[in-house]
Amino acid sequence: MRKPIIAGNWKMFKTIAESVAFVNEVKGKAEVSGVESVLCAPYTNLPALVEAVKGTEIKVGAQNMHWEENGAFTGEISGVMLKDLGVHYVILGHSERRQYFAETDETVNKKTLAAFNYGITPIVCVGEKLEEREAGQTKEVCRVQTEGALKGLSAEQAAQTVIAYEPIWAIGTGKSSTADDANEVIAYIREVVKSLYNEQTAEALRIQYGGSVKPNNVSEYMQQSDIDGALVGGASLEPASYIALVEGAK
Ligand SMILES: O=C(CO)COP(=O)(O)O
After folding, report:
1. Which residues pair with 23 in a beta bridge?
2. Might you give the EC number(s) for this enzyme (predicted)?
3. Which residue among 18, 69, 104, 220 is buried most deeply as judged by most CB within 10 Å?
């Protein structure tokens, strides 16, 4: 049985004080038995967030990391630094990073491999652009990105990885994929994992849907056979909305 996982991707939003106030509001509420709840915040907020979630079931994630442990990489943050902070998750290969910061399948793969060196669980994002969807390339794009990200991972590591299927045209647009469409692509991604590893690994790995998930549509996704949670941007920023998302994942 795969444990559902709701992860808020705060992107470049919130100060330290706002992050702590958020946790104080959702404490005890965005904690639903059987659902994993993760807040992925800007680097600057991570120490305060880790402190704020102590004694709760809420976990903290970063939104990126470098693959090297240290070195001359001005402006970068490594896995050892995130581990040092007590961070449990890291989002890798988000489409905004692929688009604006030149992330490639190769760098996503290096980062995914590196995350396991520090006991950090990667949430690897895959998903097609609108023109790729219209050209009927959705599954092919997701296959290439999934294979690229998982290259060199052991079956055990792959089973622990979280994949987030985020069709780019659905991010921040209010145009979400239908639950049936999202489930079909996600079931296909699971088939890809099966063909790379085995059935057991594919059945263990969790795959989220992301793209305009809101409190009023989250349960539709969660009812699908292969969708194990959601990676949520805009609707994760308000405490009441975040609580509703976690409750909707039951
Ligand atoms: O990019 C996303 C999460 O990583 C999705 O963002 P929205 O939920 O705002 O569409």
Report:
1. none
2. 5.3.1.1
3. 220
Amino acid, res. 121:
T
> Of residues 94, 96, 103, 220, which has the active-site annotation?
94
CA distance 185 to 59: 27
- pLDDT attached to residue 113: 98
Cβ-based neighbours of 72, under 8 Å, separated by 6 or more: none
**Ligand 1 pocket by C-beta < 6 Å: which residues?**
9, 94, 166, 171-172, 210-213, 231-235
Number of domains the chain contains? 1
The pLDDT of residue 1 is: 81
203 is annotated as an active-site residue: no
**Residue-range definition of the domain harbouring residue 234:** 5-248
Residue 26: CB atoms within 10 Å: 23
The amino acid at residue 99 is Q
Q: Tokens 């790995």 map to which residue?
A: 205
| CATH at 239 | 3.20.20.70
Residues of the chain with pLDDT under 50: none
170 touches 177 (CB < 8 A): yes
The string over 168-186, giving b where at least 16 C-beta atoms fall within 10 Å of a residue's C-beta and e elsewhere, is: bbbbeeeebbebeebbebb
What is the amino acid identity at position 61? G
Rounded Cα–Cα distance for residues 221 and 216 (Å): 10
Looking at residue 173, its amino acid is T
pTM beyond 0.90: the answer is yes
Query: Ligand 1: which of 126, 218, 231, 242 to mutate, judged by most atoms within 8 Å of the beta carbon?
Result: 231
Burial 223-242 (b: 16+ CB within 10 A, else e): ebebbbbbbbbbbbbebebb
Cβ of 189: how many Cβ atoms within 10 Å?
Answer: 21
Contacts of 37 (CB under 8 A, 6+ apart): 5, 6, 30, 31, 57, 58, 59, 246
